[in-house]
Amino acid sequence: MLAGTIDADSQQRFESAEDSIRCLRNYSLYREYFRQGDIERALPYWRIMFDEFPNFNRNIYINGEAIFNQMIEEEDDAERRAELLDSAMLMFDQRMEYFEDEANVYGRKGIFYLRHNDIIEEAGPGYEALGKAIELGNMSSPVVTLYMHVTVAKFRADLLDNNEVINTYLDLTDRINHAIDAADNENLLEALDLVEELFAESGAADCDALIDIFADRVKESPDDEGLISMVNELLDDGGCTESDLFYYTTERLHELDPSARSAMNLARMYRSIEDFDRVIEFLYEAIELEEDNANKSRYYLELAEITNRRENNPQKVREYARLAIDNDDSNGHAYMLIGQLYVDASDCFDDDFESQTRYWAAVDQFIKAKNADPSIASTADKYIEAYEARFPDGETLFFHGYEEGEPYTVGCWINERTRIRAR
């Protein structure tokens, strides 16, 4: 063996001095041309190394990957490209034969194949290589995300069924989560997000498939909080909220570990069957358990809207809407609701002029709404235009001894400080 010229893990043995000289000469020539970027001149010497001295140095395969990549990209003939791709696959296989690290090489093999052949019906060799890499513990972000991407593409091409996609998703997320637990890795967190996004957009997670896969598993393990939570989220994300399995997992999850999410799921579940007493009960619980102010704001707004429909108590509705704003002052819909409460408060006044003053307070709320949330500005502007037209006219203001711009407190339960305006 030639000391100092090969990797420490080389297994190359030479039968004669001539062989060792031939190996070193061809290795040196291919490496020099490769460094220069002259693939055409490097290739003959590289082939000798690959064929005659396959376990001399790992660089034969590392450089070989770059050589084949360039040759395939520069080749216009489809048949020849396919031949080169087949040869590259053999190169990866030979690397695994002589050097360890199969998990890494299977991953590189799969990525290489799919980079150069994106016809999903022909994805088999690359897809299988990625699957083998994952099975051997290669949880690198490119490997797992590409594997999920191809899984979804195969499903859309009718090459896989729902259950295969769901099981692949479950296997991948389980493996990624274990890898994340073993080593905090932001790339894996991003990979997990992408895998979940691909699955959510795949269309494979239809309700029948999810229920078929998980119904028995859930009933056999009613205390497995991880399983219950995962199934509940899949059903929720898949729009399967009217299924018996969703009802069961929602109630069970809340029993095992009460959370704002589980309380809201229960509230929405009871809302679908119009059991509003239970809806309000679980909305209160969701608000109490929620730590995110934006979510809490939405829950308060939902509570305000339900109360507005069920009770003739505008002050209570306003209280909830204001709590929504206190938790998130960008909640323009809460301002809109308060404004509409003021518009609807016609029974609050006996005097026509005083009744018109409620529109000042209402328009103030609609202006706040569009300032808080520009996405509803066009709707708010329509309300502003409509109710500014109901302001008292200048003559009415003069008759009652008021001037535009003066401060004014709207009466009744509204009790809002505003300013006088004419239409």
How would you sum up this structure, described in words?
This protein is mostly helical and 423 residues long. Helices cover 71% and strands 1% of the residues. It has a domain at 330-423. It has helices at residues 17-35, 39-52, 59-74, 78-98, 102-116, 124-135, 141-156, 162-182, 186-202, 207-220, 225-237, 244-256, 260-272, 276-289, 293-310, 314-327, 332-343, 352-372, 377-388, 394-399, and strands at 407-409, 417-419. It has a two-stranded antiparallel sheet. Helix 3 runs antiparallel to helix 4 (78-98) and helix 12 runs antiparallel to helix 13.
What is this entry, summarized?
The chain has 423 residues and is mainly α.
Helices and strands, with pairings:
Blueprint: H1 17-35, H2 39-52, H3 59-74, H4 78-98, H5 102-116, H6 124-135, H7 141-156, H8 162-182, H9 186-202, H10 207-220, H11 225-237, H12 244-256, H13 260-272, H14 276-289, H15 293-310, H16 314-327, H17 332-343, H18 352-372, H19 377-388, H20 394-399, E1 407-409, E2 417-419
Antiparallel strand pairs: 1-2
